[in-house]
Amino acid sequence: MSTDKVRSTKLKFKGEKTKKKRKRDDDEDGRVGSSKRRDDDKDPETWVLPEDPNELRGPTFIVHPSDPSPISINFNSTTNRVVLHFLDRDKVEDAEEPPTLLERTPTDVAQVWVTTRIAGSPTINLRTGTGEGKFLSCDAHGLVSADRDARGPQEEWTPVIMPDGMVAFMNVYEKYLSVDEVAGGALQLRGDSEEVGFKERFWVKIQYKYKKEANEEEKKRKEGLAGPPKIDEGSTNRMFQAWGAGRSVVSHDDKKELKRARKEGRLAEAMLDRRAKLKSDRFC
């Protein structure tokens, strides 16, 4: 039997420190909550799905379940352009079985974005993990790019977590990020969709340590401002796994929930702007 250690293939990010796992002993009765023990033993760098918009922070992996191959949203630091990368091209011929969509994790730093947010705001910024750190933005015409060094209204995104765990991203123009099919069958990223359907839904993964951090902060905070409400699609929750198979349109009640999320986002931003102005006037 070989005694060689298996080499880890986990993607590491520059500046991250490797944390050693700590074993936990059972209490006197030999009982420890199984879910708590599993969480304590979980590798902090494990990629997990967020369950709340506030958990979206830190390194982020964004995937769309396109057919026939799922795609990830990448950034090419050489051309400074957003690229849609077909994940099936990463298959290794010697692999026994390719991972399922939800088992996939980033294999290249070009697939990783860094999510940041202003405290108290439901909106987030998506910054590239490679190059000089450009922000993902969308203009009034729905053109998506990542070539700006500073953040502004066009770099703000409101994440909306759907009942199935997928995420929709709403921009400042109250339109949604989507993967669109253009002439010739090519795919491109757009930001001008009016409704949330199959093309506007993404699987998003974050690292467990950031999810845990967000939950700990939430426990310390009194009940108050929360992230955008989750959308209850009810009977309209129809998922299509191929292009041209149809479109899932949210109900009237869901639209009201989305409008609430938008108003909360604008209110939070107005409050932040007001505080900044008062602070500026105080020192003038």
UniProtKB/TrEMBL annotation:
Record CDD domains: beta-trefoil_FSCN_fungal_FRG1-like
Composition bias type Basic and acidic residues, residue spans: 36-45, 217-235
Gene3D superfamilies xrefs: 2.80.10.50
Chief localization: nucleus
Cellular location(s): Nucleus, Nucleolus
Single GO molecular function: actin filament binding
Comp. bias (Basic residues): 8-23
Residue ranges of coiled coil: none
Recorded GO CC terms: catalytic step 2 spliceosome; nucleolus
Keywords tagged on the record: Nucleus
InterPro entries per record: Actin-crosslinking (IPR008999), FRG1 (IPR010414)
Span list, region Disordered: 1-59, 217-237
Family: Belongs to the FRG1 family.
Protein name as it appears in the record: FRG1-like family-domain-containing protein
